[in-house]
Design brief:
about 210 residues, alpha+beta, single chain, four-stranded mixed beta sheet
């Protein structure tokens, strides 16, 4: 492991996305598991992320928060992993990663909270309405193995994770475009490793039976 790259997370969080990205990068990293009601609100961690939320990474003394930013940063910091495309694919890489992080994330969060913008206020929201955001997301992956170009990238980590989460929470119907796209991503060795690591952390933190 390496003190050059430290990952702060909770296995029941969006930290699972950053974990997958770290496993794809392949660089050594240390994991610090935080609890929502204690260590995540401690002075030590608030000095790293004043929002008191995960995930966060510290790479060579520099803090990066926000999951999409972590994915984009790691792709840039470890170019040898080949997770940032070049050429014509770069536009789709940024477009769809940050579409998922912006409009899709907002649409998902508001829907989970039971809120939908009234029709006369939809222009005030970056996603308009939930169905529009999801229909647009479908166009990004329909008929594709990868969201940007002809090879896997950090954008697939983020976009794929968002689609996967929406499906798991029952907020996204299993459209063929989504299930076909996810099938290739969730069979990747790094994805499987990341899930196994977080599952082990979840199990270790589970209360013992009485």
């Amino acid at each position: 492991m390496s003190e050059d790259l430290v990952f702060y997370t909770n296995p029941h969080s969006r930290g699972q996305i950053a974990r997958w990205m770290l496993e794809e990068v392949g660089a050594p990293y240390d994991t610090v598991r935080l609890d929502y009601d204690s260590t995540m609100k401690s002075a030590d961690y608030l000095a790293i992320n004043p929002m008191g939320k995960v995930p966060a990474i510290v790479h060579k003394g520099h803090v990066v928060t926000e999951t999409a930013a972590i994915c984009a940063y790691l792709a840039e910091a470890f170019l040898e992993a080949g997770l940032k495309p070049g050429g014509d694919a770069l536009a789709d890489y940024y477009r769809w990663m940050f579409f998922a992080a912006g409009p899709v994330e907002a649409a998902f969060s508001n829907r989970a909270a039971g809120f939908a913008p009234p029709e006369d206020k939809q222009r005030m929201f970056g996603y308009g309405h939930f169905e529009l955001a999801i229909d647009t997301l479908e166009t990004a992956v329909a008929g594709k193995s990868y969201v940007a170009g002809d090879r896997f990238s950090a954008a697939d980590v983020y976009v794929g994770s968002m689609i996967n989460f929406l499906t798991m929470f029952g907020m996204l119907a299993p459209r063929p475009a989504f299930t076909d796209y996810l099938a290739g991503l969730t069979s990747r060795p790094a994805y499987i490793r990341a899930k196994e690591i977080d599952a082990a952390l979840q199990e270790a933190a589970a209360p013992s039976p009485a």
